[in-house]
Amino acid sequence: MRLAIVVYGVLFVVLEMVGQYLGSVDWSRITPLDVAAALVDTLLAVVVAIAVLVAYDVGRRRWVPAFRAWRRRQLRSAAAPREPIGVPSWRTGPGTREVPGAGPGTRTATAPPRAVDAPAVRAVPDPDYGTRTVGQRFPEGPGRLL
Length: 146
Prior knowledge:
single chain; mainly alpha; two-stranded antiparallel ribbon; two-stranded antiparallel sheet; 2 helices; about 50% helix
């Protein structure tokens, strides 16, 4: 019963589209070529709609189980406790300390004190984009700015 209603609905839409196409042409000048063009245009629209529905159904059948399995894995991994990740520091010397449990040679650094005589960094509005900084961005670092 459900399939019959769908078939009747599609036929109704096809006939309405053909009638609308032929109605746009003067009824007294309809040729077999106009009828064929109306049928081709209408059936093309119907076939594209059917293709979209089939692609949706195939995609849903293919990806919904995979998405559910992926989501279950994500929820399981989120529930598992995680340990912090040790990040090795490139700085050595005073102000650094060993990170417990992160492996040998892994160090963390504290920021050096800011120099009092360093030029201040101020933001100047740029009419083209965002803000740009004037002055040295990292005053504690030696060398030239590029």
